[in-house]
Amino acid sequence: MRIFILGEDLSGSIASPEVKLNLGGDFIKESTATTFLRQRGYGWLLEVEDDDPEDNKPLLEELDIDLKDIYYKIRCVLMPMPSLGFNRQVVRDNPDFWGPLAVVLFFSMISLYGQFRVVSWIITIWIFGSLTIFLLARVLGGEVAYGQVLGVIGYSLLPLIVIAPLLLVVGSFDVVSTLIKLFGVFWAAYSAASLLVGEEFKTKKPLLIYPIFLLYIYFLSLYTGV
Question: Function, please (predicted)?
Fold first, then answer.
């Protein structure tokens, strides 16, 4: 490089600065290969993308599982009395899939008695039984979605799970066992019907309550396996 200042010839060279990378607080000299790639316009090959926060979500959040919401819905189903102050409509208005599925699977597990095929059978009854209730509700003029029916029917199996240990204890007493079974079925049917059978059905409520009651009787009959 040559520069003229006031008639004087000043010549010299400017050395290229060393390029250093900061890794972990220590500066290291950039390698020859890295410099070569940058000079040729291929520096983008060396770029490292920052981690996307969306990729670091917890597994439960990725699967859209809200344990607090599921726990609240379980309490709403097990304690269906309006005087307790629970907002029970959340079971119907905010349906989820994992909670009812967990309840149905748990009911299937306590119904096994060595017959593993009962799991798929109970899940099938849950899906198609809910579909039958859904179609009947729509025919009767109810504004309800299939996902809502699926969630309510699934969660309302909880009373049958609660009475299962009692049936093991009083199994030898036929009268007591029958009373407990009727209580469990009425409990489950009332929890489901009180959520699904709204005022829009008016005088047609028995047409929907009766098949719900029969569905839970059938669930209870599967308790000892099929």
Answer: Involved in the maintenance of the Golgi structure.
Please say if the pLDDT value at position 87 is more than 50. yes
User: Length of the chain in residues, anyone?
Assistant: 226
pLDDT at 25: 44
Q: Specify the long-range contacts of residues 163-168, CB closer than 8 Å, at least 24 apart.
A: 163/187, 164/110, 164/223, 167/223
What DSSP string describes 166-221? HHHHSTT-HHHHHHHHHHHHHHHHHHHHHHH--GGGGGGHHHHHHHHHHHHHHHHH
Alpha-carbon separation of residue 125 from 73, 129, 159, 220 (angstroms): 22, 5, 17, 12
Residue for token pair 């047409």: 207
On whether the CB atoms of residues 184 and 162 are closer than 8 A, the answer is yes
Q: Please state, in angstroms and rounded to a whole number, the distance separating the CA atoms of residues 222 and 174.
A: 18
Among residues 221, 224, 151, 216, which one has the least CA distance to residue 184? 216
Give the distance between the most distant pair of CA atoms in the chain: 122
Two structure tokens written together for 172: 């030898």
Q: Among 121, 54, 60, which Cα is nearest to 96's?
A: 60
Q: What was the pLDDT predicted at 78?
A: 87
**pLDDT one-digit tens code per residue, 138-174:** 888 778 889 989 999 999 999 998 988 888 888 677 8
CA 124/CA 215 separation, integer angstroms: 12
Residue that wins the pLDDT comparison between 72 and 173: 72
| pLDDT at site 37 | 62
